[in-house]
Amino acid sequence: DVHPAWLPPAAFRAVGARRVLVLGDGLLTGTVRAEVEQACARHGGALEQDATGSPGLVLALSTAAPLAAPSAAPSVAAAAREVLAGQGGSAIGEEGYLLARRDGVTVVLADDPAGLLYGLFHVVRLGEEAFTGERPAEPHRPAARRRMLDHWDNIDVHPVMGQVERGYSGGSIFWQDGGPRGDLARVRAYARLLAATGVNAITVNNVNVHATEAHLLTDRLGDVAAIADEVRPYGIRVHLSVTFASPMRLGGLPTADPLDERVREWWARTTEHVYATIPDFGGYVVKADSEGQPGPFAYGRSHADGANTLADALAPFGGVVHWRAFVYNHRQDWRDRSTDRARAAHDHFAPLDGRFRDNAILQVKHGPMDFQTREPVSPVIAAMPSTRLAVELQVTQEYTGQQRHVCYLAPMWKEMLGFGPWGRDTDGSGDGSGRTVADVAAGESGDGGGLVAVSNVGDDFYWTGHPLAQANLYAFGRLAWDPRLEPAAVLDEWIDLTFAPAAGGDPGPLRRTLHAMMDGSWRTYERYTAPLGVGFMVRPGHHYGPDVDGYEYTPWGTYHFADRDGVGVDRTRASGTGFTGQYPQPWSDVYESLGTCPDELLLFFHHVPYGHVLHDGTTVIQHIYDTHFAGVEEAAESRRLWERAEPGDPALHARVMELLDEQLRCAEEWRDQINAYFFRKSGVPDARGRHIP
Ligand code: BDP
Q: In terms of domain of life, where is this protein from (predicted)?
C-alpha cells in the first residue's frame, strides 16, 4: 500500500482513452505495451494488435518492420514514417525520442526501447494536450547518459544512523531485518516512478559500507540481482557501493593495495562473477579515505591508483566506477586556523586530472563543503577538464529540513547547474567557453559523469515522509534529463500529475497554493537558518534544529568563527586559507574581494565585523535579524495557506498540516537562537526593536 505519487492511474487518462499502436521488440517495449494496455483497460481505449487499424497514438521503434517496409502497413504508420523521413536519416540517439503529431496521430519514435518508454511518459505528462492540433517533430534526448540516485541504505539497522543513513522516510525499500525485503513490489513501483522522471541508475546500499553490506559484492550478490530484475523493465541499472578494503574483508588477502597484483586480480575475478550474475550491472561507487572509510592512502597510493584498479576490473564489461571526491580530514585540529575543509577535494583531486581511466567517474559534491543550504559551486568542477565528472546533489534533506520542512530544492540545483565556472559575460552570453556546471556533468555529447543524487525515499506511505518532498525527487530526475528546465515549470508538471486527477482535472487553486508555498521555500529555509552562506550551526550528529556552536570546537572543519567583533570564515588569498585561489577567474577575484563577493556567500568567504554593510545597504547584524524574522513569517504564511488548501486527499492534507506545525515551531527556534546568539555576541540591538530572547 503506497501513495501513487506522480503516477496515479488517472494520469494515464488521455493515453488510455486512445487506440494505441506499439511497434517493436525488446524488454522495455514490452513495458510500454503493458503500461498502455493497463491504461486502456481503465480508460476505454485499446492496444492495437497490428498495424492495420487507425490509432490515435503510435509508439514505434525506428527499426520496427512496418516503418522499415512501407508497404507492410500503408495507412497506419504513415504519419510515423513521415516523421522519421523528416529526420533525414540521422539517429534519434540512445534513450532519445521524437515526438510529433500529424493528421490526427500522435507519434513517438525511438531508436531504442528506453526512448519509447521516456516518450510514453512524455505523452502522459502532456495529457490531452498531446492529442490536439499538429506538432512538428521535436527531438528529445537526455543531457547526460547517467542519471543516478544513491541510496544510503543499510541492510542491518546501524546503531547510530539507523536503516537509512540520513533517511527521513522510514525504513529502506530494499532491506529489512538484516536481509532483502521479501516483497519487492515497492521496488518495482519505485523504478516506474523513476523512469517517468528520467532516472536510469540506482545504487542500492550506503556509501559507508558496513560489515554486512560489504557482502553484497560476493555471497549476497543474489540480493542485488533480485533488485536488478525488478528495475530492469524500467530501464534502470543497479550499481553497488563497495568498500575499498573488499579484497581483505571478503577475499582474505593481507592487503588492499591497488597496485598489488593479487588485489587487482581479486577485483577482476570478483567483477567477472558480478557480471555473470547481473549482465547489465552498472558499476561500483566508492567512498575512500573519507570519514573513516579505508582507501589508497594507507598504501601510499593516489586516488587515481585506487579508482583505476576498480575501473580496470569493470572495463571489459562496460561498467563504471563512481569514485567520490568527498575526501577530507574529519579529525583536524580545530585550533589551527590554517586548515580548511573547503579546500580538501581540490587539494586532493585537481593534481590527478588526466590520470583517471575513461570508465572512472569522479563524483563531486556540488559544493566544497557538504550539502549546505547555500554553498558556492565546488572549484573541483572547473579544475579537471580531462576527467569525467559527475555532480552529486542531496535530494534527502539532511541540511534542508529533513523532510519535516517544506524545501523545494530545484531552484538551488538550477542555480548551481546554470553556474558558469569560468565566468559569464554581463549580457549572459557566457565567457570564452560559455560552459556551465550542467555542461561539465553532461560532458561532450552526453558522455560525462552526469548527475547523481542521494535519494530521499523510504518505506513511508508517501515515499518521502513529507508528501511535498516528492517534488524534489521528481525534479531531480527531470533536471538530470534536462538541466534547462525551469523549477516552476517542473513543479507544475508534478502538481498536475499528482493532484489534477483528484482535483477533478483542474488543480488551479491548489496550484497557486503550492507555488506560493514551494517556489521560494529554499530561500525561506535559508532565511531562518545559518546566515549568509556560513553553513552548519546545526545540532551535531543528527543535524536537525539549531545549535550555533554545536560544531565550533570539534575537529570536523565546519566553523563560523563568531566572536564579539564579527563572524565568517576568511578564505581569501590575502589573509585567509587561500581557498578563493582554487577558482579560475573571474570567480577567484570576485570571491576574494569584499566589494564583489555576493552577499549570500559573504560569510563563506570572509570574516567581517557585524557592522559590515551588505550590497543592499543593511549591516550584517541587521540582516541576520531581518531574515530570521522574515523567514518565520514566511513559514507561518505557508501554514496558513495550506490550512485552506484542498488537495482532494484528507490524509495527505493532515500529514502536511502536522509537518507545517513542526516547521513553524522549528523555524521559531532557529530564529530565536540565532538572533539571541548574535545579539549577545555583538551587543547590537535590532534596529526595529523586535523581541530577541
Ligand atoms: C554527510 C553525511 C554523512 C555521509 C557523508 C557522505 O552527514 O552521513 O556519510 O555526507 O557524503 O553529509 O559520505
A: Bacteria
Contacts of 508 (CB under 8 A, 6+ apart): none
Angstrom distance (rounded) from CA 292 to CA 331: 10
Question: Is 672 known to be catalytic?
Answer: no
Q: Which amino acid type is present at position 445?
A: S
* Ligand 1 within 6 A of CB of 451: no
* 103 carries an active-site annotation: no
Q: Residue 689, exposed/middle/buried by CB under 10 A (0-12, 13-18, 19+)?
A: exposed
Position in ligand 1 atom list of the atom nearest CA 454: 11
In this prediction, residue 50 carries a pLDDT of: 87
Tell me the pTM. Answer: 0.96
Q: At CA 343, angle to CA 210 and CA 246, rounded to 5?
A: 20
Using omega within 30 degrees of 0 as the cis cutoff, is the peptide bond preceding 685 cis?
no
| Planar angle of CA 84, 122, 509, nearest 5 degrees | 145
Domains of the chain from N-terminus onward: 9-140 (3.30.379.10), 147-494 (3.20.20.80), 525-569+607-682 (3.90.1330.10)
Provide the pLDDT for residue 77. 55
Ligand 1 centroid–CA 152 distance in Å is 9
- Which protein residue's CA is at the shortest distance from atom 1 of ligand 1? 370
**Per the residue annotation, which of 260, 291, 431, 519 is the catalytic one?**
291
Average pLDDT over residues 324-351: 92
Angle formed by the axes of helices 185-197 and 470-481, nearest 10°: 50
User: pLDDT tens digits, residue range 264-284?
Assistant: 999 999 999 999 999 999 999
pLDDT over 90 (residue 47)? yes
pLDDT at 560: 97
Sign of CA dihedral 68, 74, 78, 80: negative
Determine whether the shortest distance from the Cβ of 591 to ligand 1 is under 6 A.
Answer: no
Measured between alpha carbons, how far is 465 from 658 in angstroms, rounded to an integer? 12
* Of 344, 416, 408, 345, the residue nearest 374 (C-alpha): 416
617 Cα: distance to centroid of ligand 1 (angstroms): 37
553 contact partners, CB below 8 Å, separation of at least 6: 334
> For the chain, what percent of residues have pLDDT higher than 90?
89
Ligand 1 centroid, distance to 318 Cα (angstroms): 28
Compute, in angstroms, the gap from residue 640 CA to the centroid of ligand 1.
34
The length of the chain is 693
Q: Is the ipTM of this complex over 0.95?
A: yes
| Ligand 1 contacts CB of residue 207 (under 6 A) | yes
